[in-house]
Amino acid sequence: MDIRVFLLLLLVLVSSVEHGFSLYEDQVGLMDWHQRYIGKVKHAVFHTQKTGRKRVVVSTEENVVASLDLRHAEIFWRHVLGTNDAVDAVDIALGKYVITLSSEGSILRAWNLPDGQMVWESFLQGSNPSKSLLSVPGSIVQINLKVDKDNVILVFSKGFLHAVSSIDGDVLWDKDFSAESIEVQQIIQPPESYVIYAVGFVGSSQFDVYQINAKSGELLKHKSAAFPDGFYGEVLLVSSDMLVSLDATRSNLVTISFRKEEISFSKTHISYLVGESLGIPVILPSKLSGILAVKFNTLLVFIRVKSEGKLEVVDKIANAAAVSDALSFSEGQQAFALVEHVDGKILLTVKLSHDWNSDFLKESIAMDHQWGLVQKVFINTYIRTDRSHGFRVLIVMEDHSLLLLQQGEIVWSREEGLASIIDVTTSELPVEKKGVSVAKVEQNLFEWLKGHVLKLKGTLMLASPEDIAVIQDMRLKSSEKSKMTRDHNGFRKLLIVLTRAGKLYALHTGDGRVIWSLLLPSLRKSGSCKHPTGLSVYQWQVPHHHAMDENPSVLVAGRCGPHWDAPGVLSFVDTYTGKELNALGLTHSVAQVIPLPFTDSTEQHLHLLIDSDQCAHLYPRTSEAIGIFQREFSNIYWYSVEADNGIIKGHALRSNCIGVVDEYCFNSSDLWSIVFPSESEKIIATATRKLNEVVHTQAKVIADQDVMFKYISKNLLFVATIAPKASGEFGKPTPEESWLVVYLIDTVTGRILHRMTHHGSQGPVHAVLSENWVVYHYFNLRAHRYEMSVIEIYDLSRAENKDVWKLLVGKHNLTSPISLYSRPEVMTKSQSYFFTQSVKALAVTSTAKGITSKQLLIGTIGDQVLALDKRYLDPRRSVNPTQAEKEEGIIPLSDSLPIIPQSYVTHALKVEGLRGIVTLPTKLESTTLVFAHGVDLFLTRIAPSRTYDSLTEDFSYALLLLTIVALIAAIFVTWVLSEKKELQEKWR
Amino acid sequence: MEKGKGVMVGGRRWAVDFTDYSTSPSSRDVPDPPGFSRASQDQDDSTLSRQKKDAESNWKSQKAWEVAQAPFKNLLMMGFMMWMAGSTVHLFSIGITFSALWQPISALQGVGKVFEPYKDVKVDLLGPKLLFIALNLGGLALGVWKLNTLGLLPTHASDWVSSLPPAQEVEYSGGGIPIR
């Protein structure tokens, strides 16, 4: 009964406050944090000395163009281009514009250097993107070509050479190469020349040079020469008139002199040059002016190109990691940076191109090995106070982090790996141990007192503006939220994130700092594992009984290679220390990882790994685990969704694998399959319930005290299919030939519980499944609007349990285990609404006990997270709800879902490149943590039904205390008075 | 009072007994004075006191009936208040309902005390007491009925079911789209 009272009170409370979530200005940053990243740097361009400001412009693999402060690594400005708008090249023009070429060389943009405003944008029309697009190996940008006073940008893309004015982005002229069969490799413009050379291959054994007038774009000359041995790969420009390439056998270096009257080739055998056979050579694309870097496995060989195509080995470096481009500084001198790994440290050498033997700079820098190997180097020069030249280098590491080295030190580093999170899991922090050192408390006693006095002043409204600022600062930097121990409310946790670089980070939920990071040794390139990729991360061991003396650990699953049948790797990492406990190189592949709802005596979770041959492998590989597994053997099923073939299959485990002697390996047999007709349906989205979701009750109380029983099953799968014709681009299909079909499927028996068709609708579909409902988002072609639909599913087989007396004495079967083979009768209700925004991600809040009402978390196209009450998506909404329904909290039906500006969880911030939203329940039932990740990271704490189980942050304890003291004083005074009066009356 | 008594008991050295034993001869050691007859005095007063007692007991029974009927007014009053409070759950209606429940219960607990002053050998208190109890039970019933209209009584299946956790499923299935 008290629960009912409580719930009713709650309901009244909630319905009286429409906007459950909103913040005051001074609450920003109290329970949320936001981190801005850019991703792995692809290109970096330093500002020239003249501009004075110490900045670098970078473009990254996350399609970000950003300007960074070289002193503090701050982001001055940043633009996140769309996911299909990858940056191909970046440069600076006119000393004030950043030029970027993106979308495979079809969009050229200029950004203002100081503030990042877009100045102009031009779309470069390629030829018909059929054959020429494919044959173009990459786009080439050539910038800073002086023609009169106008800077002209040369862009070669999609078979066209464009000359674009850097002032306004007008295409001055273009030259079509798509008609010729040439595969253009380089666009070269020698300085002080009005001639542009376009060089390339025709077929594999003919070399062509086109000379083009830089002013008008007309063809001046066309030269051609055959090279019977053929070429391999790309050409590299080593000096203004010399190109180098490999021949088809990859055993000879070919130098090409292209500016003379006749094209001349000169062939040099590599083993003759180097002295021995070292393996397959790869020409590094670094432009070193006169020098060529060739890589053989780990050995880097520098070869100088002398006149007449003569080659000479200058140096061999064994552990070289990366070479920068050459940078010209004073009086035509050119320098480049070379980074080597020498016993745990990195050795940075800056050499002058013309004088190999002297090292301009040689610095050895100790470096955290968690950053891995150096992958890219960008060099920049500056003038020291004594007018000499100093160099600093920007290096990109294996884990995608970005570092600036200057004067033998790491000036700053940015953990850019966090911009590409693949998977997130969570871990509890250590339990607080007894015996806090007294000294620490005493030291802070004065501070503590001062803080409380200030707070009291604040509550009594006596604080001056400076005091208020101090109070706000104290609130934001409260050490309470960033402690390394568990708290009573469960707000403090560790987020364990796996990034694309194969690095695992532990972030503190209090302030977002990195507690530890680990570049997983098992996910690094090694002899047995050529192309390792991290796949996902799971909770492996979560100690509750031994929480004081055992550390939790996570399981990281990965695979060695790009294909899904490549052998897998498993890694077990302690979440407190960040050390890898164990690593397994698997003999089988990892197609799916299924966490089972069983734990062994050491509280390790059992996991089932499915390989590409449909064999199931049990982990951990202990006899105890197999004992637990055998007990539940006949009740464990698995299913696979083959999206390409349009088949969903259910499997049961059968027996131990045949052929291999491995008691942890099990065969599986197909139980059922659902085949979608390929001509009319194509799977585009699936959704299942989160494994850790807790549901408080199986009943839904509706108006008039009636009960509906929710169909709550962990084995429910939502599948959305669309017409294959509608799977293409937006706007292509007509409403008549596009439809969206949604299914609710029981994954144990393969029974289709519900099927519904939305005619005239198309994807993309985002869906979230929780408790007994699923919400999905799609596009309605007829209405030209986005829609969101909800399906709620109810169990009719339990609807008979309505006799109060039977329930009172416990004579019901509502809590006894059920089998899905009993095929319970179900009923569904659904409703659709318009929604004005397109969606990037969809999630739902989850709380510890599942009592609190739910909110949908919608990652909008504007990279924000919007919280929308589930009550808006209730299929029982009607236009005119009855009084009882209103009391129940049913909102009158409207055609579209409201977007209340205050309910943006991310308030004024943006989570650029939003990819996923993860919700983590806290111990406090009302509250849940929301972690949104993309290029940026954002974490906040929300309470969908307000914090009904705790006092709010701004609750005035001082006032409470004052009231209590005043009351006690009053009691005392009145007691004394009454005693006196009584005595007087007695004397009377 | 309590305190004073304690002090007296603890520190008594001497005492003068002022108790008048004139009405109870048996407990007296001292013989009656000559010519004084105790019995005759009793006989003289008996008729007078009997009349007095009759009047008193009449008055007492009348008063007892009055007291017994008092809750009826209360009942009407409560009914009116409940009607005013409406059938939605808020502070006022809950307060009224609980006072409506509490009053009869406390009255029922103190049935003996209420009729204490009217206790007499000749007065039959059973009737008034029963009426009193019945009326209070009526009040209690009204309170319970109000509680029910407010939906605070567990008389529906929903009240018993909503705290039941979902049933466990025997089977377990996992999987999905293979990780790419």
What does this structure look like?
The complex is a heterodimer of chains A (988) and B (180). In chain A, the strands form 16 sheets. Chain A has a six-stranded antiparallel β-sheet, covered by helices on one side. In chain A, strands 26, 27, 28, 29 and 30 form a five-stranded antiparallel β-sheet that branches. In chain A, strands 1-64-63-62 form a four-stranded antiparallel β-sheet, with no helix packed on it. In chain A, 11% of the residues lie in helices and 45% in strands. Chain A has ten helices and 64 strands. In chain A, helix 5 packs across helix 6. Chain A is mainly β and 988 residues long. Chain B is mainly alpha-helical. Chain B is 61% helix and 3% strand. Chain B has six helices and one strand, in the order H-H-H-H-H-H-E. Chain B has helices at residues 2-10, 38-85, 91-109, 111-114, 126-149, 157-161, and one strand at 172-176. The model of chain B is unreliable at 1-9 (pLDDT under 50). Classes of the chains: A mainly beta (988), B mainly alpha (180). Strand 46 (636-642) of chain A pairs parallel with strand 1 of chain B.
Write a short abstract of this structure:
The complex is a heterodimer of chains A (988) and B (180). Chain A is mainly beta and 988 residues long. Chain B is elongated and about 125 Å long.
Write down how many β-strands of chain A occur, each being a DSSP E stretch of 2 or more residues: 64
Put simply, the count of helices of chain A is 10
Q: Compute the gyration radius of chain B: what is it?
A: 32 Å
Question: What composes the largest sheet of chain B?
Answer: none
Protein name (chain B): ER membrane protein complex subunit 4
GO cellular component, one term (chain B): endoplasmic reticulum membrane
Subcellular location (chain B): Endoplasmic reticulum membrane
Main location (chain B): endoplasmic reticulum
Q: Helices, strands, pairings?
A:
The complex is a heterodimer of chains A (988) and B (180).
Chain A: H1 2-16, E1 33-35, E2 41-46, E3 55-60, E4 64-69, E5 75-80, E6 87-93, E7 97-102, E8 107-112, E9 118-123, H2 131-135, E10 140-147, E11 150-157, E12 160-165, E13 171-176, E14 182-188, E15 195-202, E16 206-213, E17 219-226, E18 231-239, E19 242-247, E20 252-257, E21 264-269, H3 270-274, E22 281-283, E23 291-296, E24 299-305, E25 311-317, E26 320-323, E27 327-328, E28 334-342, E29 345-352, E30 359-366, E31 374-383, E32 389-397, E33 402-406, E34 409-414, E35 421-428, H4 438-443, H5 445-459, H6 465-476, E36 493-499, E37 503-508, E38 514-519, E39 532-541, E40 553-560, E41 567-574, E42 580-589, E43 592-599, E44 605-610, E45 616-619, H7 623-631, E46 636-642, E47 647-656, E48 665-675, E49 682-688, E50 699-702, E51 706-709, E52 716-722, E53 739-746, E54 752-759, E55 761-770, E56 773-780, E57 785-795, H8 804-808, E58 826-835, E59 839-844, E60 855-860, E61 865-869, H9 883-888, E62 916-921, E63 928-933, E64 937-942, H10 957-987
Helix pairs in contact in A: 5-6
Chain B: H1 2-10, H2 38-85, H3 91-109, H4 111-114, H5 126-149, H6 157-161, E1 172-176
Transmembrane segments (chain B): 80-105, 125-145
Pfam families (chain B): EMC4
Organism (chain B): Carya illinoinensis (Pecan)
